[in-house]
Specification:
alpha/beta, six-stranded parallel β-sheet, five-stranded antiparallel β-sheet, 34% helix
Length: 411
């Protein structure tokens, strides 16, 4: 489907699923749609499943917008806590259009819980409480972290609300991201079709033998490798190291659980020149979970960070709490940052990179290689550290759904 035809579908009253190949302009289409509606006094919630994508769009994460945050189960306690929040109530009651990007990374339970909240807040039993809903993403990208690999039941399209929404499919097929003879596009297309040509394999092996330049982003399958790479790169900087120690209170047992669940470092070692990623959503302060930048100075003991877009942000401490039935059992405060010379392939989803070194020799899930390769704009910027067979495999269940969406697409 062309961009113009997809735009016409978005302008209809239908709920819509926008999908297509990497770099086909899904986010561009959504931005164009929003800009067109600015003068119509419609309230639009622009959200995404990850902070990186949300920051690129100028929106917030759906977890933050909905009030569900990191909640895994919407039990009575969590449900009552959310519905008593006046700000969340106002969001649901006043929004006209809800957009969720990178939908593949949300599981079916989250979407059904979102639907439950929407119907309650709006006192309306229509799908999503009558909110026009636009879902955006490519399910060939990585699935939710907690997906059941055996049953596949956790995919967003297996939610009850997916069926209720009666989504019109906009399937985009032209790529605008990739350059360099369209070789990356060729490889991605062949992975989707599960027919890797000898010429594509030759290209990938060529990228295995290239000398990797210094200081380019590195993508790894495992957190362990990311941690080691970031520590090594930080240690190479000749600038003074400043250690930020987390402030903590409450039960040590719950403190430990809080550190684990939040990903916060008890000791965070930073320098001028450190590449960092934000780990929380603070749109009023200019950053979201996943926003990338580099420390350029320390002002009054706090890091001054230049974001990728050129904006400067001075970051302060953030608090995380663990509470049950309104009682705070543990609390920690730390800078919402982590080093980012290297990031996991999972975290890279939603980024576009001019250059990247990618380790695909230990790919452990279908779609991992597809996601990593689609991050790079051209074959010239692709440097492979290693490669295995799993890197070129996609989930058969997604292939079947993708064929169905191609057939259902609006012309």
């Amino acid at each position: 489907m062309t961009q113009s035809n997809a735009f016409k579908v978005l302008m209809s009253s239908n709920n819509v699923f926008v999908t297509g190949i990497p770099g086909s302009g899904k986010s561009y289409l959504i931005k164009r749609y929003i800009n067109f509606l600015k003068n119509d006094n419609l309230k639009i919630a622009l959200t995404a499943s990850t902070g990186i994508v949300a920051s690129h769009l100028g929106g917030v994460t759906i977890h933050s917008w909905s009030g569900m945050g990191t909640i895994k189960e919407l039990d009575d306690i969590n449900f009552n806590k959310i519905i008593s929040n006046k700000l969340i109530q106002e969001r649901f009651q006043t929004v006209d259009i809800l957009i969720i990007d990178e939908i593949s990374m949300l599981d079916n339970r989250f979407l059904d819980n979102l639907n439950k909240l929407a119907k309650y807040f709006r006192s309306n039993n229509l799908p999503m409480g009558g909110i026009k809903t636009i879902l955006v993403g490519d399910f060939y990208q990585l699935p939710p972290v907690n997906i059941d690999n055996d049953s596949g039941s956790g995919f967003a399209f297996n939610s009850i609300i997916w069926r209720e929404l009666d989504l019109v499919v906009c399937y985009l097929t032209q790529s605008f991201r990739h350059t360099g003879g369209d070789f990356i596009n060729q490889i991605l297309r062949e992975i989707r079709e599960r027919k890797i040509s000898s010429s594509s394999l030759d290209l990938l092996h060529y990228c295995l033998n290239k000398n990797t330049p210094k200081n380019i982003t590195k993508l790894y399958p495992y957190n362990y490798d990311v941690e080691n790479e970031n520590m090594a790169q930080n240690n190479r900087l000749n600038t003074k190291e400043i250690t930020f120690r987390a402030q903590k209170s409450g039960s040590k047992r719950y403190q430990s659980e809080l550190f684990k669940n939040s990903g916060v470092k008890e000791y965070l070692k930073l320098k001028i020149g450190s590449k960092v990623m934000f780990t929380v959503n603070r749109p009023k302060d200019g950053f979201l979970n996943g926003t990338l930048g580099e420390i350029v100075d320390f002002v009054d003991g706090l890091p001054l960070i230049r974001l990728l877009g050129g904006k400067y942000v001075r970051v302060n401490y953030n608090s995380w709490t663990l509470e049950i039935n309104g009682q705070i059992l543990a609390k920690i405060a730390q800078l919402p940052l982590k080093l980012s010379w290297a990031i996991t392939i999972h975290k890279s989803q939603g980024t576009s990179l001019d250059h990247a070194e990618i380790d695909l020799g230990r790919s452990f899930a279908p779609g991992m290689g597809y996601v990593a390769l689609s991050r790079v704009r051209s074959i010239d910027g692709l440097y492979l550290k290693s490669l295995n067979k799993m890197a070129l495999i996609l989930d058969n269940r997604i292939s079947l759904m993708d064929q169905k969406w191609r057939q259902l697409k609006s012309h």
